[in-house]
Specification:
Blueprint: E1 5-8, H1 12-23, E2 28-32, H2 38-41, E3 45-46, E4 49-50, E5 55-56, H3 60-78, E6 83-85, E7 88-90, H4 95-105, E8 133-135, E9 139-141, H5 143-156, E10 160-162, E11 170-173, E12 177-180, E13 183-185, E14 187-190, E15 207-218, E16 227-230, E17 232-238, E18 241-245, H6 259-270, E19 278-290, E20 296-299, E21 306-310, H7 316-333
Parallel strand pairs: 1-2, 1-14, 2-10, 7-16, 14-21
Antiparallel strand pairs: 3-9, 4-5, 6-9, 7-8, 11-12, 12-13, 15-18, 15-19, 16-17, 17-18, 20-21
Helix pairs in contact: 1-7, 3-7
């Protein structure tokens, strides 16, 4: 089989790269082993701000412009609904926090995203003495539904194999092509998430792992139609269910859920909602984070047939659409990558 690209991984990075190949009529084949769960378990929120530090996400305006266009194209391709615009209401624990919001909303980089108008709390089950701050241009993508649907799409097109990718089986055919298990390609793009720590070609990159766990609750009383931020995120899923979290654990690098995380989230939730709830699920995954909090894009410095798209952390929904396009243009047309995300930054 001859293709233009082999994609390794079917998380958010992999799907975003595949989508760019689809849009440009490129031939490809996908390998995935389901070892990485970060995209599948994510809350799927697109949020242009860091509400703890009151900073804007890097290149937030450019990223947000591409989000609806990109995911609407995926919805059309798969024939499903994935994206929903939802406001984020931030709870203030004090007048001081509310004042900090007012100051932040006047900063040029945050002004497009932090509303100056506070939202009164009309939900008797949310514990707060202040109005809410509203984050603008936010929403959610159902990442688990997207992965399942895209996998089915690839299987039907005979472009997918569920198996462990063995880096040792790569054969370099000079400087222009590459082979893997009978498939000839121009380039292999590694979208392995935290699994890239086992990739011998990109082991020099400072990929870090940060485990996140969410619980899924059911509550007939809560009746919330927005994303609630109060230390935790409380995200409506429909049918009286909500995803709540997340934890951050830099030590545990397993995908298993823990009682410790469930207890931590549950206790925090009880401090911000007054109604009864039942825990009906729990998920965990390792976020692929980086030392400088910027993703990894680019070709391998020696093996130019190898490329990487990784390191989105918790900002994949926002960044994957623009950065997958940037990497595609780089690979096809040799356009420059933003220096902030170019992996060559680690060669100097």
């Amino acid at each position: 089989m001859k293709v233009d690209y082999i994609i390794v991984g079917l998380g958010l990075a992999g799907i975003s790269m595949i989508e760019r190949l689809e849009q440009n009529n490129k031939r490809y084949f996908v390998f995935n082993d389901d070892s990485q769960q970060a995209t599948k378990t994510a809350a799927g929120i697109y949020n242009p701000t860091n509400l703890k530090r009151y900073t804007a996400v890097w290149n937030a305006i450019d990223h947000l412009k591409e989000v609806p266009v990109f995911f609407d194209q995926i919805e059309k391709r798969l024939g499903i609904v994935l994206r929903k615009d939802l406001p984020i209401y931030r709870r203030f624990a004090s007048i001081e926090e509310q004042n900090n919001w007012i100051v932040a909303s006047d900063k040029p980089k945050l002004a497009p995203f932090l509303s100056n108008n506070f939202i009164p709390n009309r939900n008797n089950h949310l514990i707060t003495s202040q109005d809410f701050g509203e984050v603008l241009q936010t929403g959610r993508v159902d990442t688990n539904k997207m992965i399942q649907a895209y996998r089915s799409y690839l299987v039907k097109k005979d472009r997918y194999k569920n198996e462990l990718f063995n880096h040792a089986d790569i054969v370099f055919n000079g400087n222009s092509s590459i082979s893997y298990k009978g498939i000839d390609a121009r380039t292999i793009i590694f979208c392995e998430g935290y699994g890239a720590v086992k990739n011998p070609f990109f082991s020099y990159l400072p990929l870090q792992g940060n485990k996140g766990e969410y619980i899924v609750i059911e509550s007939e009383e809560l009746k919330m139609d927005f994303i609630f931020k109060a230390g935790l995120f409380v995200v409506p899923l429909g049918n009286d269910q909500y995803k709540v979290g997340a934890t951050f654990n830099r030590e545990d690098k397993t995908n298993g859920t823990t009682q410790e995380a469930q207890d931590e989230i549950s206790e925090k939730l009880k401090k911000i909602v007054s109604c009864d709830f039942k825990i009906v699920g729990q998920v965990a995954g390792i976020r692929p984070t980086t030392k400088d909090r910027k993703p990894f894009l680019g070709r391998h410095p020696e093996h130019h047939q190898l490329a990487i798209l990784n390191g989105f952390g918790s900002r994949g929904i926002m960044m994957a659409p623009t950065l997958s396009k940037q990497l595609f243009d780089h690979l096809e047309n040799n356009t420059s990558l933003d220096k902030e995300v170019d992996i060559n930054r680690y060669l100097t």
